């Protein structure tokens, strides 16, 4: 009888990168805007249009620190966020 081989461990699942509602990649430190919404996906309607910075990425949600509410991080799904483009004209 041959000795038993040790089993190989399955590779850890790689988290898919987060994308905003425009399918642009977003990461920690990016400036984002919450899309205007009518209380969907657990995001209050009054947060629509607010701008902030991504503080952390979870398994399926994103923690955002908004400029207007710096002491209250908000946990939101990435599909209600839009990356803020800095300066310059689109032309």
How is the topology of this model organized?
Elements: E1 31-34, E2 51-57, E3 62-66, E4 74-76, E5 81-83
Antiparallel strand pairs: 1-2, 1-5, 2-3, 3-4
Describe the structure.
By secondary structure, the protein is mostly beta strands. The protein has a domain at 31-83: SH3 type barrels, CATH 2.30.30. Helix content is 0%, strand content 24%. It has strands at residues 31-34, 51-57, 62-66, 74-76, 81-83. Strands 4-3-2-1-5 form a 5-stranded antiparallel sheet, with no helix packed on it. The protein is elongated, with a radius of gyration of 19 Å. The model has no long low-confidence stretch (mean pLDDT 83).
Q: Element order, helices and strands?
A: EEEEE
| CATH class division of the domain at 31-83 | Mainly Beta
Radius of gyration: 19 Å
The share of residues in extended strands comes to 15-25%
Outline of the structure:
This protein has strands at 31-34, 51-57, 62-66, 74-76, 81-83.
Which features would summarize this protein structure in a list?
5 strands, SH3 type barrels, mainly beta, 0% helix, elongated, 91 residues, single chain
């Amino acid at each position: 009888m041959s000795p038993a081989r040790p089993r190989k461990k399955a590779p850890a699942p790689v988290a898919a990168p987060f994308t905003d509602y425009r399918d642009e990649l977003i990461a920690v430190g990016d400036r984002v805007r919450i899309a205007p919404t009518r209380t969907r996906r657990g995001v209050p309607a009054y947060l629509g249009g607010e701008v902030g910075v991504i503080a952390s990425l979870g398994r399926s949600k994103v923690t955002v620190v908004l400029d207007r509410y710096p002491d209250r991080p908000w946990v939101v799904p990435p599909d209600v966020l839009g990356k803020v483009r800095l300066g310059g004209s689109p032309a």
